[in-house]
Design goal:
Strand order of the largest sheet: 1-2-5-4-3
Strand content: 15-25%
Structural class: alpha+beta
Number of strands: 12
């Protein structure tokens, strides 16, 4: 199998017909035409001009930082070995090995991207040592900032910046007293992907393009129920296998593997993207019905734009126009969190963000899938406020195609309260950590969610976003009062007051219509009840 072929674009590849990448034969072995080659060159230039490639200086700094972290991990293991009474020889031989994965390992890292890192240590160094002793060590280092341990995640991780470089550090111990320097884990997902694609450079360029597009369209986030880096990488790799000559323009350990025939829970997954490395797992288990709907809309939108580019009716920049999330819906849920200081907010935010997906699932559950959520993967903060805070938002709309639902009411007050109570059950909760969930209409959105700090008028929106205007008005609505809640909570020093507002949604006659790539109109009527 040829890996990382450097064959020039458009050159004949007669041997490709005898090769099979993946579990099926390719769909097409056709190579690119001259027009496609030219258009591909324009795309690559656009990606470079958009700043998706890091400089040599930044690449060198990343290597330097990884070297420093490797030394820190080795010293940490030696320290624990000495504290636990092992011999001087064992202390001398004690070792930890650092591996990279994700975009860094795939070779598609960009400026400012984090480095996904795995530390492999000996059997007597456990996860508690990692999240207690190592965390304290890192907290005392001047080079380390924004330290955020997330021990309760599906994959526990330590997030921090080292000399300004973002690091996501994981830990795993193996059943050895000494980890050899040449310890090999080359059967990981990233390594397998690079081995299983016919042209590594084409794969990397396509993946850069798709990740950039997904971020601009607001569907790049595994934690909120969309797709993350490994999901997009697997999709691109499969596309490369099915079209091996196209250019970017176009061991048994007894572990449980993904198998919907044997494991009933696997049948509940909405968009399975299976990893190629053992044990095979669904990398997109976070996808919900609501986020799948959003992604399908964006896939269709991207396809339409690509067709226009092929007909020379649009330029590449049109494909990467940002999704105007705060103009796509008329109703939103605002999840507003505060803490006593910046360090507490970092920890509290990590806990809340990991569980926002559960709020989406609960709303789907309690409304039988008829009320759809669109979680925004970004966080927002009002720089004019002095206290530590941030906010997350979800767009709300009624499911399309429902008939005979006039006057139906979606009451999600209990759903929101259940979610809030689960959030407050955080083991490491501290006084000052609070969460406020409220409904806001589009015209009531805070100005800090808009890039220039100003709301765009209806007439200034693209025509595609003005179609299908909603005829209903809110029957009762009040301005948001999150700051009043915070002030009241602090003044009264209440430990667990009930939220001032509850949310219920009432759906009227269906008049929703697609208004292009920017968003979708909808008819959910929202009332806020005291």
């Amino acid at each position: 199998m040829v890996v990382g072929s450097r064959t020039p674009i458009g050159s004949p590849q007669p041997s490709q017909s005898s090769k099979k990448y993946g579990i099926t034969q390719p769909i097409s072995l056709a190579g690119p035409t001259d027009v496609v080659i030219q258009r591909n060159a324009e795309l690559e230039k656009f990606l470079v001009d958009s700043g998706l490639y890091e400089s040599k200086e930044e690449a060198a700094k990343r290597e330097e930082v990884l070297g420093r972290i490797s030394l820190i991990m080795k010293d940490w293991v030696k320290q624990l070995t000495r504290q636990r009474g092992y011999s001087d020889q064992m202390v001398e031989e004690a070792n930890a090995v650092i591996f990279t994965f994700g975009s860094y390992c795939l070779g598609v890292r960009g400026p400012g991207a984090d480095i996904d890192t795995l530390c492999v240590g000996p059997s007597y160094v456990n996860r508690e040592d990692f999240f207690i002793i190592l965390q304290n060590t890192l907290a005392e280092m001047e080079e380390v900032t924004e330290l955020q341990p997330v021990p309760d995640a599906h994959v526990p991780v330590m997030k921090f910046k080292f000399q300004g470089i973002s690091i996501d550090l994981l830990y795993a111990s193996i059943s050895l007293l000494v980890v050899p320097d040449d310890f090999d884990i080359s059967h990981g997902v990233a390594d397998q992907i690079l081995k299983l694609v016919p042209n590594v450079e084409h794969f990397r360029t396509t993946l850069r393009c798709l990740k950039f597009w997904a971020k601009r369209r607001g569907i790049y986030s595994n934690v909120t129920g969309f797709l993350g880096g490994v999901n997009w990488a697997l999709l691109v790799a499969r596309g490369c296998q099915l079209y091996p000559n196209a250019v970017p323009n176009t061991d048994e350990l007894g572990l449980t593997e993904w198998d919907p025939w044997k494991n009933p829970r696997d049948q509940l997954h909405h968009m399975p993207i299976i990893t190629p490395a053992y044990p095979c797992m669904n990398s997109s288990y976070n996808v919900s019905l609501s986020t799948l709907r959003v992604m399908m809309e964006q896939f269709k939108c991207g396809n339409r734009t690509c067709q226009e580019i092929e007909l020379n009716k649009a330029q590449w920049r049109a494909l990467f126009e940002p999704y105007l999330f705060f103009e796509a819906y008329k109703n939103y849920l605002q999840v507003y969190i505060v803490a006593s200081d910046a360090d507490d907010l970092l920890i509290w935010k990590g806990w809340v963000e990991l569980r926002l997906r559960q709020l989406t699932l609960k709303i789907e559950r309690d409304t039988n899938g008829m009320l759809q959520c669109h979680p925004c993967p970004n966080e927002y903060a009002d720089t004019s406020k002095q206290f530590p805070h941030c906010a997350f938002f979800m767009g709300l709309q009624r499911k399309e195609g429902l008939s005979g639902q006039e006057g139906q009411q979606f009451d999600i007050r209990g759903t929101v309260e259940e979610f809030r109570q689960e959030i407050h059950a955080y083991t490491f909760w501290k006084p000052g950590m609070e969460i406020f969930i409220s409904h806001v209409r589009r015209k009531q959105l805070p100005v800090f969610v808009f890039p220039d700090g100003n709301k765009r008028s209806q007439s200034s929106r693209p025509l595609s976003q003005q179609a299908g205007r909603i005829s209903e008005d809110f029957s009762r609505s009040q301005p948001g009062s999150t700051e009043r809640q915070i002030k009241r909570k602090r003044d009264d020093r209440l430990e667990d007051p009930k939220p001032e507002k509850r949310v219920s949604l009432e759906a009227n006659s269906p008049e929703s219509s697609t208004n292009g790539c920017g968003g979708r109109s909808h008819t959910a009527l929202v009332k806020q009840l005291n």
